[in-house]
Batch of 3 targets.
Target 1
Amino acid sequence: MELFLATKTGTPIIGQIASVMGWIMDGIYKMLDGLFGIQNIGLCIIIFSILIFAFMTPLQIKQQKFSKLSAIMQPEIQKIQKKYQGKKDQDSMMKMQEETQAVYQKYGVSATGSCVQLAIQMPILFALYQVIQNIPAYVGSVYNVFNGVCTKILAVDGFTDIINNFITDNKMTRVRQVTENADSIVDFLYALSPSQWESLQKISQFSGFSDQISKTASEIQKMQTFGVLNIADQPL
């Protein structure tokens, strides 16, 4: 089951990179809003992804260069391995290592070059996924949209049962059950589709702030709509 989580990942390195990325995306959102009056999460994700891709392009070029050179070097390395095949003494092993290293030096690459490139790229890609998957956790401008409604819901007796029943009745598969925690409510609100926002307003226990729900729904839907698509809509 796919989850939207307002809680940031606590994974070392990935968590720190994701926090920086979230700060960048929040900056992009504020820039688009301030300069052009555009409040759109989809456009932010596109611009953000282009920036990350541009940042990783040199790493990808080095990775591709290493792959091409590796294909060229391979016959020479295999020749060395065949030369010392079956020789397990220390002198032979050292000579094979020296000759192999000489091949890498000849082509100006490191034996660990490919691993280094992947070691740099993987945490960045994992962090990128975390930020895009968990927008409210990292983009404060999005999280703040829900503050008013979230506070009102927290003040309703038995709100966890009300919302969890709502999740079950509406067959929401992209959000977990809420707990007595503001982040879990934000998870729930961020995953609502336009029709589900309308259903939320009709809950009797929330009638006292239905106007605020409507206002929040209008604001977040504007942010989530990209072209004719709403990124909160579930695929059929």
Note: The beta strands are 225-226, 229-230.
Target 2
Amino acid sequence: MLKIIDHGPVREISLSRPPANALNGALVDALDKALNAAAAEADAVILSGLPGMFSAGLDVPELMELDQSAFTKLWHRFIGVQRTIARMPVPVVFALTGHAPAGGILLGVFGDYRIMPSGPYKTGLNEVKIGLVVPEPPYAALVRLVGPREAEAMVVGGEMIRAERAAEIGLVDELVDSPEAVVPRALVWCETQLALPRQAMLFTRQMTRSGLHAVFDGYDESRGDRFIELWFSESTQATLRGLVARLKKS
């Protein structure tokens, strides 16, 4: 489900679970393990996906099969991956190789930098439209990137936005011409960071990202119960069943 590619001191961790890189328990666990290994073995990290699709977010059909206890454990592991990314000791760039809705961008907001192809590709947080809520840690990271007013509009409206709009508001840092150009550009970004005096760069990075660390320092996992409670509510389950039925037809 992952491809690991070393570009010298830069490690690329590529999501490889076709067709949509949907995040299930096995992929979440593999990603967390790969990130921790990269933290010890690489000088910078690229997180990439499939051409045209970084990740469609959580694997709803598979997660719908879980009871509340199993889902709660998986959900806490997913928040744990976000924590791992936020606290990575080396630069992390998200090579958003295509669409990055919901769970895909919930991870991306914790990176140092985000690159996306221009054109038809979309991102956004549509949780409210299916009866869910954006968790507190990624919401705080979103506010850090785009400001409170844009963050409010994104999570309350739940709209998907095109890459150009994402770049305009600061959710994405840079656009390139095609999905194939994203990883090469991410590699250049990493090399630029690594060309700086290393200790000064790392200390400065740690200082400027201290707010992301604090998000998790004060995070009580029981607050995630709101997401879990909504996931298992009758109305949300009905919406999710409808979504799964549409996915099976497509």
Note: The two ends are 23 Å apart (CA to CA).
Target 3
Amino acid sequence: MTNILFSSAGRRVQLLRSFRRALSQRQEEGKILAADMEPTAPALYEADKAFIVPPVVSSEYVTRLLDICRSELVRVVVPLIDPELPILAEHTAEFARIGTTVLVSSADSVRVADDKLATAAFFEACGVAYAKTCCASEAEAAIATGRIEFPLVVKPRRGSAGKGVRYCRTEHELRFCLDGWTDDEVVVQEYLEGCEVTIDVFGDGTGRVIAAIPRKRIKVRGGEVERGVTIDDAQFRESVVAISSLFKPYGPINVQCFVTDRGPVFTEINPRFGGGYPLADAAGAQFPEMVLDLVSGRAIEPRLGSYERGLVMMRFDDAFYARETDLIVSSQAPRSSRCHP
């Protein structure tokens, strides 16, 4: 029985459906479970069974997930938002003791991805082109010595979905954007022009790349890709191999870059399923099938280059409808109570 729990499931309905497909195609018995702090999180209503959990920052969060895993015989936990990754990466041994695998890279790798300054240093160590980055206190000297040049962006040192990013064209604007912020809170980074590309990567934890599917962002809404297209991987493959060899992804990560006049320039690593992964899945990525193999100890053959190029994704809003009395409080709302469009 391969029961799969998606933590912080939110709006990731398509991802849950892709895992349901994988179970069906592999003829494996298993349930799709989902957990979230919000009773109106749409993915809860796609799951076979759903749970309300404390906020990720709560001291009870891990305890609650462990309780669910014990009672539901969960085989694998799939974390879906950045704030829970460092927490779950530190507690993988506790889950392993009850027979549950957490689909997350090592704690050291997650810490690198969580810190944009550390990520820039990591890319440098990998030998790949990366966005020039410095901490706030070093910005003036970096500009004076030509290490970075305007225009610049000020970003939260830790954060995602493009929140809190500010554009600066002059020293006056930069000083204004940095006023009151510390080195631990923000970084200063060169502004990159070019098409933005996200590469969905799957690894087995050893540094070996199993698959890598690049997709160009056409339109983004709220920090998440709304429209995109898969593109050829030739210009990214060498860099992805170098990044993966040091990062050693366990399961899915997505690597972000801009394709500029000097080639791909890398900016971020997100060690989880990206919000735009459904495009890679539709193009033949088969990451859910790989997850089933990975946690079962089955050999996974590399599939580099095995996906459809030129596949366009055009996402749109859909909805579940439920009566207030049927909203999930602590366990599954009966499937028959759901009101569909």
Note: The chain has a mean pLDDT of 93.
